[in-house]
Write a structure and sequence with these properties.
Elements: H1 3-14, H2 20-37, H3 48-62, H4 66-86, H5 112-121, E1 128-129, E2 135-136, H6 143-156, H7 160-165, E3 177-180, E4 189-192, H8 195-205, H9 228-242, H10 250-262, H11 267-274, H12 279-300, H13 302-305
Antiparallel strand pairs: 1-2, 3-4
Length: 309
């Protein structure tokens, strides 16, 4: 079977189980593979040696990072896992091509002052100098919306794509329940906004004509869903005005997770709230929270501070 035909079959079965980001990522890898082997290549003729050469080509041609190369390996392995079951051809990656290793970047969280500074920065645009030499600024028309978004991110640990896809019907104003319909792997789950976040969302929604059930919870000025690029730009712009370095949307998720554990939450609850299948990822947050507790214990030790002997 032609590789291109096999890919059509793969997507017919797999697309619904992937997030839009994963679909886009896999499509890039498959497009590059098709270009590498040629349009007439049959999937059953692509062997381990060809895929090794292809992965080396990705590094040489596109200068991929270790993490991106690992993602490409995962996409290829997924394709051949499907082909093994659907087409009955050997899996030429499993136990033959080692998964590329990469060093996970150190998890960074926001401090309380970081988040508060970004919330404050939502209200006004960056200052500028008038022709008379005076400093001036103006209120931002999306200030209340942006505050509500930041509060929701840090309070629930939602992924960027999950927040962008929220509809008005997904939010229960009575109890703060947020229904995540299209989580990673198309999995559904429920998270909760606290009273502080609900108040921020209420203030924002009070400025809008009551949205219809299918309209975005967090909307653009044209009442469309805010997209990931616009969300990232908003967060980075607010951080720049607030003087917060290395700001990302995902850093709110890390902040939520670590503080959830610091404040007494357990790993099973956190796994459910974050929508993770495996506990391995959660252990990263546990380790970071434990280090913080060790430092806190060291600073506040009664025996040490009282110099008991």
């Amino acid at each position: 079977m032609l590789l291109l035909d096999a890919l059509n079959g793969y997507w017919l079965e797999k697309r619904r189980g992937f997030s839009p980001h994963t679909v886009s990522d896999y499509q890039v890898t498959f497009k590059r593979l098709a270009s590498f082997v040629g349009p007439e290549a049959h999937i059953e003729h692509i062997n381990t040696g060809v895929l090794r050469a292809f992965l080396n080509h990705l590094v040489d041609e596109y200068k991929l990072s270790d993490k991106t190369l690992c993602n490409a390996w995962t996409a290829l392995s997924s394709l051949w896992t499907w082909a093994e079951l659907e087409l009955g051809i050997p899996h030429v990656i499993r136990n033959r091509i080692t998964r590329p290793k990469y060093r996970r970047p150190q998890i960074e969280t926001y401090t309380q002052s970081d988040v508060q500074a970004m919330l404050n920065a939502c209200e006004h645009a960056a200052t500028w100098q008038t022709r008379h030499g005076r400093q001036a600024t103006s209120l931002r028309p999306t200030g209340l919306r942006d505050k509500a978004i930041i509060m929701t991110l840090v309070d629930t640990g939602l992924r960027a794509s999950e927040l962008c896809q929220l509809k008005f019907r997904d939010y229960n104003q009575e109890n703060g329940q947020i229904f995540v319909r299209q989580g990673k792997g198309d999995k559904e789950r429920i998270v909760y906004a606290s009273e502080s976040s609900r108040r921020a969302i209420w203030r924002y929604l009070s400025t809008r004509t009551k949205p219809k059930a299918t309209e975005p919870l967090f909307a653009t000025r044209t009442n469309q869903h805010i997209d990931r690029d616009a969300l990232r730009h908003m967060i980075q712009s607010a951080a720049k005005r607030a003087g917060v370095a290395k700001a990302t949307v995902h850093r709110f998720r890390h902040t939520f997770a670590v503080n959830f554990l610091r404040n007494g939450g357990n790993v099973v609850e956190l796994q459910e709230l974050l929508g993770h299948e495996r506990l391995e990822t959660i252990r990263i947050y546990v380790k970071l929270a434990t280090v913080d507790l060790e430092r806190a214990q060291s600073r506040s030790s009664v025996a040490d501070n009282w110099r008991l002997k």
